[in-house]
Amino acid sequence: MKKTDDNTLIWFRIITIFPDMFRAITNYGIIKKAIQNNIINIDFINPRDFSQNKYKSIDDRPYGGGPGMLMSAEPLYLSIQHAKSTLKEHATIIYMSPQGKIFQQKHIPILINKKRIIFICGRYEGIDQRIIDNYVNEEWSIGEYILTGGELASMIMIDSISRLIPGVIKKKESIEAETFSNNLLDYPNYTRPRKIKNISVPKVLLSGNHKKIHLWRLKKSLEKTWLNRPDLLNKKLTTEETILLNQFKKKYNKKL
C-alpha cells in the first residue's frame, strides 16, 4: 500500500476482486503522470484477502432464493475498514450501482472536494444490502445499462474526476472549452492538412479573425446541442446564443 503524501490532492481506494483491470488507467496517459507527480494516489483492496474461509470465496447465494450470487458482507466490511485505515481523514464511500444517481460533468467539482474516495466495485448480482445501508455514503451509476461489474464504471469516474484536478491537465483553457463545460456540446475541430480527399477545413478557421472564429464555434456548438442533446439547452441562453440558435432553427426547418 502506497503511503499518503501531504501534497497529494485526492486519494482513491478501490475495493475490487480484479485490481489488474485498473492498469488500463494507472499505466497510461494523464492518470499515470498524475500518480507519478503525487497529485493523485490510487490503491486497491481485494476482498479475497479478507475472506475468512479456506477457499477465499467472497460470494454466496441470496436469502429467499433467486438467480446468481451476491458479494458477502464480511469481506466487504473488512475491506472498507482497511481502506479507511490507509487514509488520514474521513473518506466518502461510493458504491457503483445501476440503481445509483447518474454521474454527470457537473458533479465532478463536488467529488473533487471530497478528497478521499473509496469505490466499491460490485460483481455478480450485487452486494449484501447491509453494506449499502450501513457503510455506503453514495451510490453512483454511469448510465442506464448493466455492466458485469463496477470496475469499468469506477475507472470512468476516476478518469473524469482526475482530469479536472488542478495540475493534472496543464492548460486550463483546454478544460474550459470542452463539451459540457458551458452546458453545450463541443464544436467541430480540425487540424493539418488543410485539405484531404478534396475536403477542406472551414475557411473561417484559417482567417485569423478571432471574433468570427468564436461566433462560428459557438454557432456550431449550439447547433450540435440542439440536434443531439436538446435537454442541455434548459439553461438560460445569452442574447448572442439565442440569436445564433434561432438563425439555425429557421434554416433547419426550411430544409424539412
Record the SSE blueprint:
Layout: E1 10-15, H1 23-26, H2 29-36, E2 40-45, E3 59-60, E4 70-71, H3 73-85, E5 92-102, H4 108-114, E6 116-121, H5 129-134, E7 138-141, H6 151-162, H7 172-176, E8 195-196, E9 199-200, H8 210-228, H9 239-255
Parallel strand pairs: 1-2, 1-6, 5-6, 5-7
Antiparallel strand pairs: 3-4, 8-9
Explain what you see:
It holds the Pfam family tRNA_m1G_MT. By secondary structure, the chain is α/β, with parallel strands linked by helices. It has two domains: 10-162, 3-Layer(aba) Sandwich (Alpha/beta knot), CATH 3.40.1280.10; 195-255, Orthogonal Bundle (Trp Operon Repressor, Chain A), CATH 1.10.1270.20. The protein contains nine helices and nine strands. The chain has a five-stranded parallel sheet. A two-stranded antiparallel sheet has the order 3-4. Strands 8-9 form a two-stranded antiparallel ribbon. Helix 4 (108-114) links the parallel strand 5 (92-102) and strand 6 (116-121). Helix 8 packs across helix 9. The radius of gyration is 23 Å and the shape is elongated. The N and C termini lie far apart (61 Å).
